[in-house]
Amino acid sequence: QNEQLEGNEQVDSKERQKETNNEDQHNNKEIEKGNKHSKLGKEKDELNETKNDNENENEKDDKLRKDNQKESGKERDNKEDKQQIKEKDEQNETQNEKEKGNTKEKRNTNEKLKEEEEEEEEEEEDQNEKQSIQDQSHTNQQVLQSHSSSDQKSPSLPSSHQSEQSHPPSSQKIQFNDDQDIITNQQQYNTTPQKQVPQQPIQQLAITPNEFKFHIKATASCKNDLVIKGGDLQTTMVVFDRELTQGVWRFLAKATKLSASFGIGIIDANQTKILHPFRINNRLNNNSICYIGKMLWIKGSGKVDQANKEITSNQSVTAVVDLISDPHTFSLTINAQMQPFCVTHIPDKVKFVFTLGNATDQWKIISLKESQIGIDLDRFDEKKRYKYE
């Protein structure tokens, strides 16, 4: 019985051992299976990670390639823009050089034509002086003939009548000679050869004494010899009552100056009231531009400049208005020397004016011409281009 029990125990022990071994084998298989799955999962993860890394690298490469393309496009655009800018700058430079050349050529042409005009004015002045001397000599001869005819006893009335018919009064003679001067000078200008591009001839207009207006209380006068004279000790303004609205006009007169109020200029044609006495430094109702002595006055405001030339006796003074150029401009020459200033933005309608300080002041009117040559602003310093305001 004991042996049987021991035998049963051994059998049970073997069975238990066998079951244990089976369990161990099963567990080992499960472990191996788990390890295998774990290894596969790890490899899969590594593959996924590698794939993600590759995708990221590809994205980076794509982005870098796109950025490079953009940069290349920008560089290409910038290069094209720079090329266009360079071409445009070259075109502008060429255009500027061409304009400078045209401006210089035009300026040289205007300067030469202006010099010709100034030479003609000087010749005209000399001819007028010679004509004045001839007129005076003829007048004296006429007086002598009149005296000699009155001393004769033969029919005096017919002789006197014939003398009057053959020799008109002195005032009419002077007026006739002034008109003759205008015709002669106009013919002389028309026969003067042009050195540059042909321009339209300067038109010289006849002037009559009744065109010079002054205040009713002023004692100034303008006789048939076109000499404007002062009459009292108050400053008198004399207006040449011809309204100028277009063109370039040059008014030439000769000065006989003995007072400090002697001058020349222009006035806004819309101002109908002639001031008397004329106070040049009064800004109230004063729409004039006057050059008195050696100072420029604009609407009562003085502009001091030591470079200005003073108007003195026996000088030829030309006041110029340019109603063609933009802006309209006023300038002045003394003895054919252009003064260093000009006045821009003058009114669209102007009249020439003269000022007298006392009875000894005189302006001898020489000529009024319409010119084709405007005022070149480039000849004046910007600081001396005064504005009419």
UniProtKB/TrEMBL annotation:
Residues 1-175 are annotated as: Disordered. It comes from the Eukaryota. Residues 116-127 have a biased composition (Acidic residues). Residues 144-175 have a biased composition (Low complexity). Residues 131-143 have a biased composition (Polar residues). Residues 11-54, 60-115 have a biased composition (Basic and acidic residues). This is SPRY domain-containing protein. It comes from Streblomastix strix.
